[in-house]
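BUG-337 | component: ligand-complex export | severity: low

The export step for adenosine-2'-5'-diphosphate jobs runs without errors, but we want the raw record kept on the ticket for reference. Input record follows.
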Amino acid sequence: MRIAIVGATGAVGTIMRRLARERFEGHELVAFASERSAGKTLEDGLVVQPLRDDTIEGFDLALFSAGGDTSRDWSPRFAAAGATVVDNSSAFRMDPDVPLIVSEVNPDAVGAARKGIIANPNCTTMVIMLPAKALHDAFGLTSMVCTSFQAAGGAGQKGIDELTGQVATVGEDVDQLVNHGEAAARKVEHSVHANTLAYNVVPLLGTLDDQGYTDEEMKMLNESRKILSIPNLEVTPTCVRVPVVVGHSVAVRATFDQEVDLGRALDALNGFPNLVVTEAPTPLEWAGRNETVVGRVRGDLNDPHTLNFFVVGDNLLKGAALNTVQIAELVAQRVAA
Ligand code: A2P
């Protein structure tokens, strides 16, 4: 097979190249990025190609992580030239002709790619989907209150650079952090995150709509409904950026049709593929790992139909590059069958 990696120089694209090399050994990989990077040799020896009608011919698979605009322009062209596209942007996720797939949750949807494009979910939605599906199959999910703790790396390399560049300056004066926080926050610039992120928590992530929710929050609602095939699922989302480099966490209050038995819930979570249960997972300890991890699993104090838990996943791996490559594996298996 010939496999294109579009956005190959980015935070997600770099990991996609590594995973594609490991999981598609012996197949040809071709790197694409912007005109600025064309001709550059990457550390794995691939030479970056520009996106042009004559360079996109002859691919079986094209894995995209180069932003929504690039996906909107070039995914249909790769598909028209014969490739199956797996797209990590939000451009096609809610298109009814484009399946939105978490490989452990709804792999069979791969057969419904009527446009030759399959979408990879938002990185925060992805983290919730594994435990949500495990518990939905056991008890019938009806609603979720989800509060995220999202890493800087969710905004790509530039999001990581902005956070790490702020840490020393904001942290140098502890007395100021204690007594004059606003002055500490104003010592550095921010453009990627909505406020100074170092030594801080920023409860605004994305663009607000007229109901007071951000586009990032609405992805959690709309994408969860589509992936889980629960059209009337109620989701109350709050997305928060925290000073973590990689690893999104979400506190979830999930309510079900049936009363929840804690033992059966733990069995369902423990038995789900690529999901691990520990007592109190933290994003730093799970950065760089493929599995999603859930902890603080406990019944609700007020409602026997409700379970509370805390879930953590690497937003660049399962949240983006890994799931994209897992979808590519599903496509390859289907072609081979
Ligand atoms: P480049 O490095 O040439 O700018 P990140 O999410 O980490 O910011 O990465 C974005 C990725 O998308 C990079 O590989 C970037 O390439 C690529 N990219 C950005 N704009 C375009 C474009 N117009 N055409 C193709 N690739 C693009």
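Assignee comment: Attached the raw record above. The chain has a mean pLDDT of 97.
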